[in-house]
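Appendix C: a fully annotated inverse folding record. The material below is reproduced so that readers can follow the format used throughout the book. The structure is listed first as tokens, followed by the designed sequence.
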């Protein structure tokens, strides 16, 4: 039995975070600012993990029992953010979906419906396992989708570069899945089959901001058209990820090159960790959209 009534009456949906790494702790901070989500628990697997200790110090309920703590909660959570690993996500879906929970998946598991907020936000309400693809996917797909809607594109190459310090253990375990899932998302949202994705992890000091370089080959590309499309896509992404900006945009002899950079808002992650900020910001937006739909359907939260 779910607890929709009590949470809806409060104008929020209950939320929990699975994972206490860099992504999970930043998610916690963002959820605590939300007027649509009520953070009820952060769960990990290691009681000594620094993230779990810091969370407990803020007065947030914590557990070192992982998904079992959420399953055994007095009332099921409406939304669970999965910031663990791609391999574990399917198990979490099997345990939590029967309880009425919607999962927002920040792992590159390719298990659920891929969501890019500026592209297919309308799909959120119809699915209960929502994949945020990857940080590279969230940064590149809005731009690539905009260009491919207006131009025939024969090849896309995406190179993402992130600082070593912005990559936690869970992300390092998922590097192959990251590349595969990002490629799949680009193919799905652009219709282009010939896609290549590469990931660079930079040890530079000081750490460089998260950057995504996109190269596209197409017969009818023009500087004027591509520049306008990229600027519009970037404005839409900045509505929820304020540190997103275009560094370069050029077209030459049938090849377009676009480079974007993302810096974080500096909540509980450093400014260079824009890779974490953009996927977390997108995840929060997705969860808040789902909450608004649920609460509206329940007749709650209308002003």
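Designed amino acids, in order:
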């Amino acid at each position: 039995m779910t607890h929709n009534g009590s949470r809806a009456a409060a104008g929020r949906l209950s939320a929990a975070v699975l994972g206490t790494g860099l992504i999970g702790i930043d998610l916690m901070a963002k959820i605590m600012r939300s007027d649509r989500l009520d953070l009820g628990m952060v769960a990990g697997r290691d009681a000594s993990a620094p993230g779990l200790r810091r969370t407990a110090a803020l007065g947030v309920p914590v557990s070192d029992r992982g998904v079992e703590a959420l399953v055994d909660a007095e009332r099921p959570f409406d939304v669970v953010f999965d910031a663990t690993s791609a391999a574990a996500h399917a198990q979490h879906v099997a345990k939590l979906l029967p309880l009425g929970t919607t999962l927002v998946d920040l792992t590159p598991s390719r298990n659920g419906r891929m969501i890019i907020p500026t592209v297919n936000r309308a799909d959120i309400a119809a699915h209960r396992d929502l994949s945020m693809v990857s940080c590279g996917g969230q940064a590149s797909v809005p731009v690539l989708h905009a260009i491919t809607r207006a131009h025939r594109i024969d090849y896309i190459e995406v190179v993402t570069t992130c600082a070593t310090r912005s990559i936690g253990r869970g992300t390092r375990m998922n590097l192959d899945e990251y590349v595969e899932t990002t490629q799949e998302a680009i193919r799905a949202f652009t219709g282009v089959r010939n896609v290549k994705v590469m990931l660079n992890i930079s040890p530079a000091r000081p750490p460089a901001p998260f950057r995504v370089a996109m190269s596209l080959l197409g017969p009818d590309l023009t500087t004027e058209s591509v520049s306008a499309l990229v600027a519009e896509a970037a404005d839409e992404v900045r509505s929820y990820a304020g540190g997103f900006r275009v560094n370069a945009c050029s077209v030459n002899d049938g090849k377009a090159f676009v480079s974007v950079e993302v810096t974080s808002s500096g909540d509980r992650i450093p400014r260079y960790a824009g890779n974490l900020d953009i996927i977390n910001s997108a995840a929060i937006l997705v969860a808040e959209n789902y909450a608004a739909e649920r609460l509206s359907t329940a007749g709650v939260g209308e002003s």
